[in-house]
Amino acid sequence: MSPAAFLTLSATVAIAALTPGPAVTAIVARAISDGWRPAMAVNAGVVTGDLLFFALAAAGMAAAARTLGDLFAVIGIAGAAYLAWQGVKLWRAKPRVAATAPVGHEGHFWPNYGAGLLLMMSHVQAMIFYAALMPGFVDLTALQGADLALLGAMLVVVIGGINSGYAFLASRARRFFADERALTLMNRVAGTLMFIAAALVASRV
User: CA 118 to CA 124: how far, in whole Å?
Assistant: First the structure.
């Protein structure tokens, strides 16, 4: 794989990652409601999903999107339902200006990681994106293990880094909210973003 092909592919992935979609919306919502660390757990799940789809595309299994279409549809519905439920919880959460976590929020790593991974597994277009994108830049049959590792690292850095930027900026916005009325507004903004993410996922099933 030539340096020019690698840089062009990296730039294309970066442009795709900068475009807000269900993953970015869910990460921003979690950052606004619970802060940077829970949002980074969602980000980790999203990046894991991207790596899985990249691996499937590199292995020539893009046809699984069609062969397992019904299964992916079920996963997509489950992902949309989970995000919608998170939105409901955020809308119903009672604001607390204390140091403890607000009711209805999820601050633990694994549930947030699982939400990010489930979100990506319901995003079958991501695998199709990799399956269509990769052959245009590299000859997958000629790739060595080191090339695949380099591309995987690029995905982690580019997608994870851009999502981290979104999470950081959204979490900083929380500092402007210091009373119950503002916290209620913050929860409902985050909940609405969860609903939007759920709708985006459902529309792609």
Answer: 11
Cα–Cα distances in Å, from 192 out to 29, 33, 39, 186, 198? 8, 11, 16, 10, 10
Closest alpha carbon to 124 in 39, 40, 199, 63: 63
b/e string for 134-163 if b means 16 or more Cβ within 10 A? beebbebeeeeeebbeebeebbeebbbebb
Nearest-angstrom CA–CA distance, 187 and 56: 37
Distances (CA, A) of 135 to 12, 161, 165: 13, 24, 29
More confident residue, 47 or 118: 47
Return left, alpha or beta for 177; rule: phi > 0 is left, psi -120 to 50 is alpha, else beta. Answer: beta
Token pair for 177? 């909210």
DSSP 179: S
Q: Nearest to residue 9, comparing CAs of 141, 132, 161?
A: 132
CB 190 within 8 A of CB 30: yes
User: Which amino acid is residue 199, in one-letter code?
Assistant: A
CA distance 16 to 52: 17
22-34 helix and 109-121 helix, angle to the nearest 10 degrees: 160
pLDDT digit string (tens) for 74-130? 766 776 787 688 788 878 877 654 333 443 455 688 889 998 998 888 776 676 677
